[in-house]
Specification:
Blueprint lengths: L2 H13 L22 H14 L7 E7 L5 E7 L2 E3 L2 E7 L3 H8 L2 E8 L4 E11 L2 H9 L3 H9 L9 H17 L8 E15 L7 E7 L11 E6 L2
Antiparallel strand pairs: 1-2, 1-5, 3-4, 4-7, 5-6, 6-7, 7-8, 8-9
Length: about 230
Amino acid sequence: MSDDEADERQAFRAALPRLRVWDTELPAFDPATAPEAPLTLFHRWFVEAVEAGQSEPHAMTLATADADGRPDVRTLLLHDADERGWHFASHATSSKGRQLAGRPWAALGFYWPARGRQIRVRGAVSAAGPVESRADLGVRSTGALASALTGQQSEVLGSTKELARASEAAWERARAEPQAPVPTWTRYVLDADEVEFFQGDARRRHVRLRYRRTTTGPATNGADWSRELLWP
């Protein structure tokens, strides 16, 4: 190990123990008052995270598995959450797209430290059709379209100069053709069968409330879910 590497490791190990969690007053959460279905509580907590000033509350982790069953994870943005499920989008040809095609189940994770809250969502994932996928991209920014047009997501990149050239061409097309088609762009919907809400507590008496689907099909009312508390 070089001296520089040793210094970096020492700095890391000195910094890590000094970190503290939830240096703000945390809200109370009484699970007895929770709604019968998780979507309502998700909407409520999301809005409260926004109002608390949480940065990028729509950012979430997406966990999938490859053909060998090895887990994979990345951060992306939530596009919607409704009775169909939790919506996100990507290229069908990306790593996540190929993994979902082979193993159409996934998990989502939200973390909102401004409120000391986490939400975990698990379930089956399906791809929306081309019309809905195109509409998903159509309402986003020019930059989002340019990024999608750049394409080749998850493929090996030869150099940053190659990326710069492709990106510049994509930006020019996105500006000139706001409705440019991106055939591989796909909107996905995770139909949850399990949703867990975690409320942190300063004394580590964390509240964990798990919803579990009791019937098949889209959840339209509380009768589709059971609720249970988990030890922290």
